[in-house]
Amino acid sequence: MSIKYKIIELIQGDITKLKIDAIVNAANNGLFGGGGVDGAIHRGGGKEIDDQCKLIRERQGGCKTGEAVITTGGNLEADYVIHTVGPVWNGEKSGAEEFLSSCYKNSLNLAVEKNIETIAFPCISTGVYGFPKDLAAEIAVSSIMEFLKDNTGIKKIILVCFEDESFKIYKKLLGLYNSN
Ligand code: ADP
Q1: Which residues are listed as membrane-spanning (predicted)?
Q2: Which of 44, 52, 73, 135 could in theory staple to 16 by disulfide, Cβ–Cβ 3.0 to 4.6 A?
């Protein structure tokens, strides 16, 4: 299912299957690959992604929470993977909201730097990292909207929900109850 909202598009599905300039990975600090979407992206991309993550690890020790790094897409359909590290949810006032917002903004800034025009995001931090799905969605949309105020060259941003719950939350949030 797919819903268009100006340049933001909402879909439910597997981000690794998208033919697009860049997909964003909800990575870990060591860029090792892991479970969830991270595992799926590393499996789909293969050795090329693993090797480039290793180089980044050697160069700068991985990726800090809220920051973003880029590799090519390896065997994936996407040309690039932007790896960003979401915060683990530790409750309100732990700074997690700001870190999550930084994930979206830093990923988009990196995309612009690389002349990437189409980019897809998973629901960062809402799996193993335990961020409340509704709050994470609000932060995702507000951060993207903020970024779009002085955009820049990005032509399409796809929000990819894997499960029904997130998809429903985003649909509501984007005010699109009646459009499917
Ligand atoms: P985190 O560690 O940041 O919480 P997870 O991978 O555990 O990352 O979960 C982040 C989100 O990615 C969850 O909403 C999960 O349902 C979703 N997800 C898992 N696999 C995929 C996939 N192949 N494509 C898109 N989203 C996915």
Answers
A1: none
A2: 44
